[in-house]
């Protein structure tokens, strides 16, 4: 069972539908007892970094997420849900993140239109199980103005936009994140979620 964390941020239903299409049972919840039984956890997100962290605190979700991370439960962050996995974000105001990944989130520094919106192709930085069903240069769908600046060893894939490399997939141990929306990325997104499904079985 995958628990999609309900913290009043993001497109919960579209993420849930994407998992159900590949045969993964999901529950949208912020209940600690439910989260503690999850085989996998998904942090979706659309909005701003400070509001996301404020809501995690309001619903008392930070400690249970840290506990599940320490227990080795696979965690997947999507879009803003990926960004809050980092140590801090500079959107609106400097805000402490979950600190599951090293690095910070800042406004994209590119010579191209912001927000970065639309389809872009993935470039692989390293091998990772999330990539097992897809190939380099496959296209995925992005919508964001802020991006993660991770440490090099936690960068799995990126895309090129303007003159810059944009972080696309990050991972460390059982914590993973996609800046793009796999639930909106057609067959490629489906294959990434299927790879995550294999990790929780």
From TrEMBL:
GO biological process: L-histidine biosynthetic process
UniProt entry keywords in alphabetical sequence: Amino-acid biosynthesis, Cytoplasm, Glutamine amidotransferase, Histidine biosynthesis, Hydrolase, Lyase, Transferase
Catalytic reactions on record: L-glutamine + H2O = L-glutamate + NH4(+); 5-[(5-phospho-1-deoxy-D-ribulos-1-ylimino)methylamino]-1-(5-phospho-beta-D-ribosyl)imidazole-4-carboxamide + L-glutamine = D-erythro-1-(imidazol-4-yl)glycerol 3-phosphate + 5-amino-1-(5-phospho-beta-D-ribosyl)imidazole-4-carboxamide + L-glutamate + H(+)
EC number, as in UniProt: 4.3.2.10, 3.5.1.2
One GO molecular-function entry: glutaminase activity
Biological pathway: Amino-acid biosynthesis; L-histidine biosynthesis; L-histidine from 5-phospho-alpha-D-ribose 1-diphosphate: step 5/9
Subcellular location: Cytoplasm
Catalytic machinery residues: 79 (nucleophile), 181, 183
Keyword Lyase among record annotations: yes
Pfam families assigned to the protein according to its UniProt record, in alphabetical order: GATase
Domain Glutamine amidotransferase as annotated: residue spans: 3-193
Alphabetized PANTHER family for the sequence: IMIDAZOLE GLYCEROL PHOSPHATE SYNTHASE SUBUNIT HISH
Function description: IGPS catalyzes the conversion of PRFAR and glutamine to IGP, AICAR and glutamate. The HisH subunit catalyzes the hydrolysis of glutamine to glutamate and ammonia as part of the synthesis of IGP and AICAR. The resulting ammonia molecule is channeled to the active site of HisF.
Subunit structure: Heterodimer of HisH and HisF.
Protein name per the record: Imidazole glycerol phosphate synthase subunit HisH
Gene this chain is encoded by: hisH
